Amino acid sequence: MTMTSKPRLMQGNEACVEGAIAAGMRFYAGYPITPSTEIAEIAAERLPKVGGKFIQMEDEIASMGAVIGASLAGLKAMTATSGPGFSLKQENIGFACLTEVPCVVVDVQRGGPSTGQPTLPAQGDVMQARWGTHGDHPIITLSPSYVREVFDMTIRAFNLSEKYRVPCILLMDEVVGHLRERVELPDPASIKIINRKRPDLSKIEYYNPYQDYDGDGIPPMVNFGEGVPYHVTGLIHDITGFPSTKPEVTEYLISRLMRKINDNLDEIIDYEKFYTEDSETVVVSFGSTARSVIRAVKILRREGQKVGMLRLKTIWPFPHKAIQELPPTTKNIIVAEMNFGQLIEVVGASAKGRFNVIGLNKYNGELISPDEVIAKVREVNKNA
Amino acid sequence: MRKSLEKYYRIDKLPHIWCPGCGHGIITGAVVRAIDNLKLDKDKICIVSGIGCSSRAPGYLNFNTLHTTHGRALAFATGIKLARPDLKVIVLTGDGDCTAIGGNHFIHACRRNIDITTVVFNNSIYGMTSGQYSPMTPLGAYATTAPYGNIDRNFDLCKLAQASGATYVARGTVYHVPQLIKIIEKALQHKGFSVVETLSICPTYFGRKNKLGSPVKMMEMLRDNSITVKAAEKMPREEMVNKIVIGEFFEENAPEYTEEYMKIIQRAQGEE
Amino acid sequence: MMEERVEIRLSGSGGQGLILAGIILAEAAILDGKNAVQSQSYGPEARGGASRAEVVISNDEIDYPKVTKPQVILALTNEALNKFKDNLAPDGIIIIDSSVKKADTPYKIVQLPIIETARDRIGRSMVANIVAVGVITALTKVVSREAVERAILKRVPKGTEELNKKALYAGYELVNQLT
């Protein structure tokens, strides 16, 4: 991307709104909650300037509902929240998964459970982002580490959500949400925007809203009010959109929903490798924690330690390939996360006994520090 | 059914799932007739519902229809209306859906005065889950979860709507169909948030639990217990017990939400 | 005293404008062509309660964004001084307000009437944060005077520019009087 904007100091939450607007967001519904509130405040100011709509709903449940309604009516829509609000949104997130309504849900993670620590960082919503709503469902979750990356990843969240007709979770944390950082934004003309796939109604005799016309698992979408009436329900439905309890219809729908994601892992999954080529120990991390890991790896490399980092930008679907493709030199994987140990379960499953998988966990409201990563790597290397 | 009304239905989805004697088909028919009488553009109508017996109605209606989560129809409808103010948005909901799990969304939709018409199918019971009491079940009535009689005081939905800021409020019954159609027509023409509470009958659960007899008997009760708003004004309090007051309660012109938001857009863009 | 990475911690209580002061220092560093990040920590109170803002300035990419061993600490309350006084970089300095009671610390302490200057000389105690920015700029030269002035004009409410400039200059003067 070509840089055109002057360097400026921008907050992560602000970069989220700027990225969303660049991606085409024209509807935001939200409810105030620390540490995500700036996203709502900035959206309230910015959206009407571009002809978009902002509404502060009565709660998080309503916000999620309004976002789905607006998206069905044709606007790209987003909501942002934190822990308790993310819990409240879950039922309607499941509705969007099943009815395949594109939308972006930002969760600026704070300490939990319950009210927890509103002003302090955590990464305890990793599993909630995947399985927070009930039942089998597809979901995409991205996690940014830098303010500039918040901008880019919000655009990517919209693009993936629109392309695959699936809710996309932007899993931020208090550190990256509140951090102000020097950013240079790309020229808007250089930004790649993906819009939902539309049917060619001249070629379709009768539009079935959930028919896989193209064989890619993604039904083309008509917006409400475009002269093609159809039914949307949170019940299991057939290709016509109407409820069905037939086993074959149920199985087909659930497997198609999963397939549209699972067939496109290479496009959806993104990660960064840092000094992994010859490393004996690889630290897996994401979000703001990864910044501590990068610093630690730089310091340890200067000492000659064979350590690297795998930074997950896509959390869900989980990048199993990235784990499995680690070089033969790798013996240990340290999973650094600001929780009691969530992602480590998946990393462990992915490692299949090939690596020692060790957790570096912090759940006291503070970001894992580079010193803590360094100490853990030294401890692991000594024991190895 | 009149042939001219068939275009409003998804005939292939009939017969409906409602029990014999259920009043919900009458309300659905009244909504369709009101739309037809007003000659509204069919393609510009969105019908949104929540969960429950009432909320199955949109599936039989040939518009943009959205069957959402329990209690949340108004939240989804608010998103649609604000995104596309040119669409006519109608919410079909039940007494449990609207006033229990959806009660908060209901009062806030009233407060915003967003241009949505809400028709509440009030059968005084949770029918879909087979007969539990709702916030609209009368005191003393029986339900599967009120085996010794209901001690929860019930809402007066029309008073709730008016106090919360709705700008058109009326009540009808499935017995008084011509009046119901007229009320829904007025609600649809009203600019702002309009509420039509409609007393329906549930012979299967509410009727059976409370020994009210056949659907015909229940319809006769609606006929015999209903009085007009005017008559109610003159009636002594003690005679009002068990009476159903029907007609228009409230109508006013007030700033409508999506129109006000368009002014916000103009203000924000004028500043630049 | 410019190293590869300079860490600044501004501490005091909520409502003292420390976060804005941090934003101004970070913004000034960017105007100087450097990298900068600003973060904050605060309690549930909008006014009162412990508050701190942190700034990291570097010529390099900034990976870890938090302050661990600051070169500069500003403490506007006793509580803030006692909490942070023992954990600085080896050459670190602590700037405290004259209302703060000096405490034992291995680091250099510079005590100046920051709040009093804002209240009595400028006439608005709310600009104590900008006086402090002036003190930090003059004392440590982590950002240039030109950049800090531009950053203030960008970030303070319209109509208060002159007031804030006066506060900044008053901060410079407090440092001049030291030597």
From TrEMBL, chain A:
InterPro entries recorded for this chain?
PFOR_II (IPR033412), Pyruvate:ferred/Flavod_OxRd (IPR050722), Pyrv_Fd/Flavodoxin_OxRdtase_N (IPR002880), THDP-binding (IPR029061), Transketo_C/PFOR_II (IPR009014)
Question: Where in the numbering of this chain does the Pyruvate flavodoxin/ferredoxin oxidoreductase pyrimidine binding domain appear?
Answer: 18-246
**SUPFAM superfamilies in UniProt:** Thiamin diphosphate-binding fold (THDP-binding) (SSF52518), TK C-terminal domain-like (SSF52922)
Asked whether the keyword Oxidoreductase is assigned, the reply is: yes
Which keywords does this chain's UniProt record carry? Oxidoreductase
Keyword hit for Oxidoreductase: yes
Q: Which Pfam families match?
A: PFOR_II, POR_N
GO BP annotation list:
response to oxidative stress
Q: Which residue ranges does the record assign to the Pyruvate:ferredoxin oxidoreductase core domain?
A: 280-373
Q: Name one GO molecular function term.
A: oxidoreductase activity
Write down the NCBIfam families for this protein, in alphabetical order. Answer: PRK08659.1
Identify the PANTHER family for this entry. 2-OXOGLUTARATE SYNTHASE SUBUNIT KORA, PYRUVATE-FLAVODOXIN OXIDOREDUCTASE-RELATED
Q: What is this protein called?
A: 2-oxoglutarate ferredoxin oxidoreductase subunit alpha
TrEMBL record, chain B:
Q: Which keywords does this chain's UniProt record carry?
A: Oxidoreductase
> What's one GO MF term for it?
thiamine pyrophosphate binding
GO biological process annotation, one example: cellular respiration
The domain of life for this entry's organism is Bacteria
Domain Thiamine pyrophosphate enzyme TPP-binding residue range list: 51-197
Task: Return the Pfam families for the record.
Answer: TPP_enzyme_C
In Swiss-Prot or TrEMBL terms, this protein is called: 2-oxoglutarate ferredoxin oxidoreductase, beta subunit
Q: Which organism is it from?
A: Thermosediminibacter litoriperuensis
UniProtKB/TrEMBL annotation, chain C:
- Entry keywords, A to Z: Oxidoreductase
What are the protein's GO molecular function terms?
A: oxidoreductase activity, acting on the aldehyde or oxo group of donors, iron-sulfur protein as acceptor
SUPFAM superfamilies registered for this protein in UniProt: Pyruvate-ferredoxin oxidoreductase, PFOR, domain III
Spell out the InterPro entries in the cross-references: 2-oxoglutarate_synth_KorC (IPR052554), PorC_KorC (IPR011894), Pyrv/ketoisovalerate_OxRed_cat (IPR019752), Pyrv_flavodox_OxRed_cen (IPR002869)
Pyruvate/ketoisovalerate oxidoreductase catalytic domain sequence ranges = 14-173
Residues in a coiled coil are none
Which PANTHER family does the entry link to?
A: 2-OXOGLUTARATE SYNTHASE SUBUNIT KORC
* Protein name as annotated: 2-oxoglutarate ferredoxin oxidoreductase, gamma subunit
Species this chain originates from: Thermosediminibacter litoriperuensis
